[in-house]
Amino acid sequence: MRRAVCPGSFDPIHKGHIEVIARAAGLFDEVIVAVSTNYAKNYRFTLNERLEMAKTTFSALSGIVVEPMGEGLLSEYCHARGVSAIVKGLRSSSDFDYELPMATMNRQLSGVETVFLPGDSRYLHLSSTLIKEVHTLGGDVADFVPRAVLRRLQGDVGPDTRPVPIVPPRR
Ligand code: PNS
Question: Can you give the pTM of this predicted structure?
């Protein structure tokens, strides 16, 4: 089985992410959307909330699973999960400049390749940070995020601060 991972904070997931992940699912047997935790970062949404928004978004699509990535190295996660490729979307040359050293490091650490997919032109301007800012200042972000995210941004769903279960490695 050819398994790929799309790692990220997904705080929150938006249509740029979704479009790239859906295309990745056409290239691999299984795509894991791995939701990361970095305790140096201040997230708008808890890990459970970020997982729930991504799970709801992909619930109707086969071949895409969503799970927490944990705090460790992505290369070790790939090894533990039997992942042969990391898939990243590129919006710009600065994305490439940021991603290239990580792709090289991950390949040297574990042999895992990184596959870059060019972002769709409709979504090149999107980032989770920009979406949160626009929404916080009263702008309409409904065109940029899935329904599950819009509901959380609008406060239609209560906060989820439960601890996240450990996911055992799969092969
Ligand atoms: O959405 P983000 O915050 O840009 O995602 C970043 C992520 C999770 C892809 C990156 O921080 C990562 O790979 N973290 C895992 C830690 C790691 O392996 N660091 C070394 C990278 S070479």
Answer: 0.93
